[in-house]
Amino acid sequence: MNSLTKQNKPKFEILSKLSLLQNLASFFISKTNPAIIHNIEKYIAIQKIVFLNSSEHQMGDYLEFGVYTGSSFCHAIRCVKECEVFNPKQKLTNFFGFDSFEGFGELEENDKHPFYIDQNFCTNFNKVKKRVDKTIGKWSKSTLIKGFFDDTLLVDPKEYGISKARIVFIDSDTYTSSKSAFDFIKDIVKPGTHIILDDYFSYQGNPQKGVACAFDEFIDQSSLSYRKILDYGVGGVAIVLH
Description:
The chain has 242 residues and is an alpha/beta fold. The chain contains ten helices and seven strands.
């Protein structure tokens, strides 16, 4: 083999021959539940958004629509706590979570999806509340509002004690429920508000369905614009309003 041939030899040829390692990696990744990967990346995304928001001394509350078991909600509380070093007024952030805790209820035809069924999203409200209360302690205040969105989100946010939102996490999956959430926050968001959108590419990526459709309508009706910050997990995105 001449020197020229040696120079052209792929630097990572040995790695391509390590089929055992590649097969092992493939095996463990294929066996990992995609929901676990999604949730881990979601937690990292929440941490990044909280840091960005806190480092700019944004004020307002944290709102989550679609609390389910409270995992993301509790994680957001922990992240806001840890970012107190960047924003000395973090304790003024109150946390509000909205969910029926009974699944979706009766879905409209356009919202039907093989995974969005009550059996997959029913949870125990009392257990979730206990988990949230333990996480937040006496550091700040949290409120869980139980009920379907067409009942709980038809009031002025001020009735819940919400005047401004600094971070909004919308994990309500369907168009109808997401639209209710966006209608609720339209007067309390501001430049610098960060919005996390889970399941943004559901419904086979159809922009006329799901949270993507509701978000586009919200932006069209708003005086604000947005920039995308990051993608995470299986179809989640995070944006900032400006």
